[in-house]
Amino acid sequence: MKNLAIESIGQIAVNVKDVTRAVSFYKDVIGLPLLFESNGLAFFQCGETRLLLSLPEKAEFDHPSSVLYFKVDKLPSTVMSMKEAGADFIDEPHMVGKMGNTEIWMAFFKDGEGNTHAVMSEV
């Protein structure tokens, strides 16, 4: 197979039912910087990756989003802050696995659109 030299993910699209409600959640609860909104689209910056929130363009795109894993340094305090801001967590922070000496911890939550995402930390 040929080396395609893919460097990273540039943008991820998340389907939403209500763009205004979703913008409020991703900005005020998760704390992502809003880049801009235009014609029912909202763009956020998450590290080097851009996040697009939008209504599905066509029926074939109308499905729940992929699970986004937001990497954080301090998982327990992030979960607490997000809960205080209104996030609905499905579970508490828990270890999901080990890579050598590194523990991988996660906590899953629902955004205001019903999509499941997680915050994660490598300790």
From TrEMBL:
It comes from the Bacteria. Pfam families: Glyoxalase. Residues 8-122 form the VOC domain. SUPFAM superfamilies: Glyoxalase/Bleomycin resistance protein/Dihydroxybiphenyl dioxygenase (SSF54593). This is VOC family protein. It comes from Paenisporosarcina macmurdoensis.
